[in-house]
């Protein structure tokens, strides 16, 4: 790196460690949710898992706006233009509110049609649980969008500790509400949905209040009550947000498509897939956290005109990702049977989960960081369009098509064992990772991502 380093090792540790803790907390609480819902039965777990797939689609849409706002704000901070950073923050808040409300207004009255279209082949008790949970989760989306955007702005300032504190409170409310409403009031999946809504409302309210405090932060919400639609700033945010949104949305539409044809595999496979996804998420915590941190680090480097430092920090962040994910994947691989016992699955679902998770850990440590942490580095420099194109091609050509073909082959080979077709879904995903890794590494090494301009 040339010139004085923009970020010290201590700064990076202060930025990344709270993000790792926040990611772990969110996934751990999600796992606790699954354990609590499992008391309702496998139909409850399956119904919630199907809605979680759709929820992830919406969450990634909101995250795309948050990423766009965070990239723009980080680059303005690196450019020492705090006034423009604050303008970007205000426009990001409006975008988040509008996006969240639009999803509620469109999806709430059409939720049964949506679920029938996506998962028409599922059993009636699974559908009933899914419909109930869906209604409550939909109502929470505007608050989740506000929280995500606010947390992204704090990260762009290098303050990830505050969003961690709010996340702890949010998740304590969620898990406490689950305990009262699922076990105490016997509301089943409705209790889980109400707890989710309550916790996200709390988090959005607190984060908005904190970011409205003038003088306490480099970036703050300035006069939110005075509505101003800044078209130029919106364009800058959407220049990153739209490609990211398309990338994230298409990615999860692809996952839902896979989930849709997988719904014919039976409740055992659906439940095993849900638990496998939860456990696999734990191994990805360091990569996700460092990916979020890279928006701040790379964005400020680009804003300051320090392209060599952007490359240097990119390499450093990737190296740390691989080391951390080797540790997490090794632990999960070794203790998978022990962890699976917590989810009250049938013996068939438990055995299937153990096998799937262990194949995932082997692929995770090699290909996942390059497939999902690296594109955040490219995106932070403004190279969002390239990551969108690669991700969309890879998703449909490899994950969706290959998952279907491999699963179909396994079903024909073993017609009496529908559970084994789940391996086809996961191996299609691994092929997707390999392609992404090759394309993103090539792009990083070419340094073409450094030529993009967003401010």
Keywords:
about 450 residues, mainly alpha
Judging from the principal axes of the Cα atoms, what is the shape?
A: globular
Characterize the largest beta sheet: strand count, sense, and whether it forms a barrel. Answer: none
Q: What is the tally of helical segments? A: 14
Structural class: mainly alpha
List the secondary-structure elements in sequence, H or E: HHHHHHHHHHHHHH
Strand content: under 5%
What is the tally of beta strands? 0
List segments where confidence is low: pLDDT < 50 over at least 5 consecutive residues.
Answer: none
Radius of gyration: 21 Å
Average pLDDT works out at: 88
Please, what is the oligomeric state?
A: single chain
Please give the alpha-carbon distance between the first and last residues.
Answer: 23 Å
Percent range of helical residues: over 70%
Structural commentary:
The chain is mainly α and 455 residues long. It has 14 helices and no strands. It has helices spanning 9-37, 42-78, 82-107, 111-119, 124-156, 160-184, 189-211, 231-262, 267-283, 285-303, 307-340, 347-380, 384-413, 421-446. Helix 2 (42-78) runs parallel beside helix 10 (285-303). The chain is globular, with a radius of gyration of 21 Å. The two termini are 23 Å apart. The model has no long low-confidence stretch (mean pLDDT 88).
Describe the structure concisely.
The protein is mainly α. The chain is built from 14 helices and no strands.
């Amino acid at each position: 790196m040339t010139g004085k380093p923009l970020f010290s090792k201590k700064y990076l540790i202060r930025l990344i460690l709270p993000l790792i803790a926040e990611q772990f907390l969110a996934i751990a609480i999600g796992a606790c949710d699954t354990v609590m819902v499992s008391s309702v039965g496998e139909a409850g777990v399956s119904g919630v898992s199907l809605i979680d797939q759709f929820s992830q689609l919406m969450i990634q849409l909101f995250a795309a706006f948050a990423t766009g706002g965070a990239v723009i704000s980080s680059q303005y901070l690196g450019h020492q233009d705090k006034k423009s950073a604050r303008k970007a923050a205000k426009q990001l808040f409006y975008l988040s509110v509008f996006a969240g409300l639009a999803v509620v207004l469109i999806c709430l009255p059409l939720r049964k049609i949506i679920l029938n279209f996506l998962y028409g082949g599922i059993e009636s008790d699974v559908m009933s649980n899914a419909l109930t949970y869906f209604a409550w989760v939909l109502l929470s989306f505007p608050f989740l969008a506000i929280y995500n955007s606010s947390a992204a702005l704090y990260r762009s300032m290098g303050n990830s500790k505050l969003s961690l504190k709010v996340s702890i409170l949010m998740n304590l409310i969620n898990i406490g509400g689950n305990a009262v409403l699922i076990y105490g009031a016997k509301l089943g999946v409705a209790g889980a949905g109400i707890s989710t809504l309550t916790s996200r409302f709390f988090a959005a309210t607190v984060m908005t209040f904190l970011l409205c405090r003038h003088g306490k932060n480099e970036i703050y919400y300035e006069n939110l009550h005075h509505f101003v639609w800044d078209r130029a700033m919106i364009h800058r945010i959407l220049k990153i947000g739209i490609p990211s949104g398309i990338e994230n949305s298409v990615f999860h539409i692809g996952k839902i498509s896979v989930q849709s044809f997988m719904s014919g595999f039976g409740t055992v496979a659906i439940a095993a897939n849900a638990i496998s996804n939860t456990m696999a998420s734990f191994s990805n915590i360091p990569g996700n956290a460092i990916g979020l941190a890279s928006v701040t680090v790379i964005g400020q480097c680009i804003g300051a005109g320090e392209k060599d430092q952007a490359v240097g920090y990119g390499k450093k962040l990737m190296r740390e990702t691989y080391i951390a994910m080797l540790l997490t994947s090794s632990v999960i691989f070794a203790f998978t049977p022990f962890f699976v016992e917590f989810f009250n699955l049938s013996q068939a679902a438990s055995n299937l989960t153990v096998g799937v998770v262990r194949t995932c850990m082997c692929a995770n440590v090699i290909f996942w960081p390059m497939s999902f942490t690296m594109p955040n580095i490219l995106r932070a420099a403004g190279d969002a369009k390239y990551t969108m194109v690669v991700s969309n091609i890879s998703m449909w050509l490899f994950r969706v098509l290959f998952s279907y073909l491999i699963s179909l082959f396994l079903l024909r080979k073993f017609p009496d064992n529908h559970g084994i077709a789940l391996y086809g879904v996961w191996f299609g995903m691994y092929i997707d990772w390999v392609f992404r890794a090759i394309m993103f590494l090539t792009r990083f090494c070419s340094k073409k991502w450094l030529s993009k301009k967003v401010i």
